[in-house]
Design goal:
By secondary structure, the chain is an alpha/beta fold. The protein has a seven-stranded mixed beta sheet, with helices on both faces. A six-stranded parallel beta sheet has the order 14-13-10-15-16-17, with helices on both faces. Helix 7 crosses helix 14. The longest helix has 24 residues. The relative contact order is 0.11.
């Protein structure tokens, strides 16, 4: 009996998911927790891993305090790797082996890449079944490509094709293409990893569609991934519906939360035209937009009048006001987007279908938000939130069309 067969027949099985997230990324500084469409990059992947429901434990292996904090907020356990395991030259295999040496209970491990934000739960469920309930020893992710490859040669030498007959070039529709690793995940039995390989024994693969095969290595990849993740990313077990109502806290969201006093004992508040344009974009799409503020400020009313939206000031219970609007419009909370910045907004951000926060919002509120802007309040955060709402609406529309066909 082979070692793999013996391991398959072992009584106690423990499937662990591990995400490697070193703090010293060279391509993009701290890219693992950089907001992608308002959510830390690692958050997109952790949400999928946890909601897949196939893992006995979910871990992030890191050497960085902030990455640890974000990972725990998204529900992962954290393994603090050693300085040697976190060095620049450390391989993924070395990091995996260090984790396994410290977790003897793990019999099968899935290395899930933090830089694959378009993963879906079913991408992980099938490989888990292939190993835990089947007879596979390793399963990894592939995608199909239709690219002709040519031999690399020195200048002046003659190259030749590696995967085609140049005299009979097939049309794309006449060629199945080739399967290539996309790096999204690698499921492997413990003994294979400790022997230095990710793929061995009986090897299988799961083919992922090209729309889900997104990888982020450089700054150039970021805006492309941001557009792709809004359309193809996993938003959680409760899918976003079409947003009908968008509510913005005024102080700290539409303003910078500062009060400017003049020599004549007057004061003024600044508003951002970019934010105003974003709100008009929502209005043009037929959304209802409302503003809410804890303090009374006649300048807020002038701003609301200019936009043509309702403003409630002096609001001591923002959640009660939000529920009142919800009931009047006969909406589900998933159809409401709310952006706030401080404690009075906390419950609204938590309960709304899309909760948003500026970059400089209070930490506890940002933890609850599903979207965190790259910009501060009064500096374009609301505009970014408006853009995000529009993208979510587009996703909800495309999902509805897809389900009907």
């Amino acid at each position: 009996m082979s070692h793999n067969q013996a391991e398959r027949g072992a009584g106690s099985k423990h499937l662990a998911a591990v995400i490697l997230a070193r703090g010293g990324s060279k391509g993009i500084k701290l890219k693992n927790i950089k907001p992608l469409a308002g959510i830390p990059l690692i958050g997109w992947v952790l949400r999928v891993v946890i909601d897949s429901g196939v893992f006995d434990s979910v871990w992030v292996s890191t050497d960085h305090d902030e990455i640890e904090k974000v990972s725990r907020e998204f529900g992962a356990s954290v393994f603090r790797r050693s300085a040697y395991g976190a060095r620049d030259g450390a391989s993924s295999l070395e990091s995996v082996q260090e984790f396994l040496e410290n977790h003897q209970e793990v019999t099968v491990m899935a290395l899930v890449q933090c830089t694959s934000p378009c993963l879906q739960p079913w991408h992980l469920q099938d490989p888990a079944r292939m190993i835990m309930d089947g007879d596979y020893d390793s399963v990894f992710a592939v995608t199909r490509q239709h690219k002709f490859r040519w031999e690399e040669v020195q200048e002046g030498e003659n190259t030749k094709p590696l995967n085609l007959d140049s005299k009979h070039r097939p049309r794309r529709q006449d060629w199945d293409g080739e399967l290539v690793e996309n790096g999204s995940f690698y499921f492997s039995r413990r003994n294979l990893l400790m022997n230095g390989v990710f793929q061995g024994g009986k090897v299988g693969y799961l083919e992922m569609g090209s729309e889900y095969s997104v990888d982020i290595d450089t700054d150039i990849d970021w805006p492309i991934a941001e557009q792709r993740v809004v359309k193809f990313g996993y938003f959680g077990k409760s899918k976003p519906q079409g947003v009908k109502l968008a509510v913005f806290g005024v102080d700290g969201v539409l303003t910078d939360n500062l009060v400017y006093f003049t020599e004549e004992n007057g004061h003024f508040t600044t508003y951002n035209q970019t934010d105003a344009m974003g709100i008009r974009m929502l209005l043009d799409r037929g959304l209802t937009v409302k503003l809410i503020a804890s303090e009374e400020n006649e300048l807020h009313q002038k701003f609301a009048d200019k936009l043509g939206v309702e403003l409630v000031m002096g609001c001591e219970n923002k959640l009660a006001q939000l529920v009142k609007w919800r009931n009047k419009m006969e909406l589900d909370m998933t159809q409401i987007a709310y952006m706030g910045c401080d404690l009075p907004d906390q419950e609204c951000v938590k309960i709304a279908g899309i909760g948003g926060a500026p970059k400089d919002a209070q930490h506890n509120l940002k933890v609850m938000a599903s979207f965190v802007s790259n910009l501060d309040g009064g500096r374009g955060a609301a505009r970014e939130f408006c853009n995000h709402i529009i993208l979510v609406i587009q996703k909800a529309t495309s999902d509805a069309i897809r389900s009907e066909t």
